[in-house]
Amino acid sequence: MRMLDQDRIELVPIADIKFARKNVRTSFDDEKLRELADSIKQRGVLQPIICRRSNGKPELIAGERRLRASKLVGLKTIPTIFRDSDDTEVTYDQIIENLQREDLSTDDQFRALKTLRDSGLSIERISKMIGLSTTTIQRVLVLDTLKPNIRKREDISAYAKAFIARAPEEVQNLLAERVASEEIGAKSLGHEVMPAIAETLEDDIFTLQEKRKVIEKIVRESSKDRPARSIVRQERGIKKLKSAGIETKISSNQALQEFIDFSDRYLDRLAILQSTRFEHLDPSLVIGLMNVFRQVHSTLEAILRDVEIARRRR
Question: Whole-prediction pTM value?
């Protein structure tokens, strides 16, 4: 908000100033407010607040932190510029001033940007008005699907909140708790947990009720020792066995022995392949085979981890 040459500064009694009917900012950092109060005590109010006249009384448009800090140090008057502004202009001025501050909470930032968006402004227009990138604005507006109580939490980063907002509503609180307690790291949340949840939602093998159960299992049980995607693969395998009429507890050892026998046969065939003339082999097929065995190796590692976890629980 720029001060124009024709703007006249007046010293207005602080007791006469009323706050605007609503402000998108609901929280103030007490420590930073005290720091501002100390600065004002030493140097005075360097930047005037902005008011309009409402029913003959000055009504604050911008500068609530300066006004609150001035009250803290006992000032009786404060330098003020008066503007003729309607309600929409007041809202825009307050939002723009607040969004340019670094200490704005995630929830207040979200509500401020949502107010601008809901007023009909495009993301590009909002970006030019407040100086935030369109990517940052979109990341904050994703929080529209996040539970309000999680948006207000200060023990969860804005980065993590953006991912939690994409999770089904019924598991958001549990996911937030595990992220806050660092049982799930922000990197794991973005690269493991959320892709596993998306994979589950898109998988037609599961019914809607089964998807909910698998997602809850991902949120509750995923860890460094048990990656989220291994849970999805395991649940998918169980569903396929059940669809074939096979009881998983009975079939596990049998299936593992069959896999060992099957692998032995193909190991012999690989040995034969190794003795062939390599110039006749298609490199892309060899790479494809290597990728298959990498996936097999990854799955076997996940099985081994699950076995170790099961043993420790006994």
Answer: 0.55
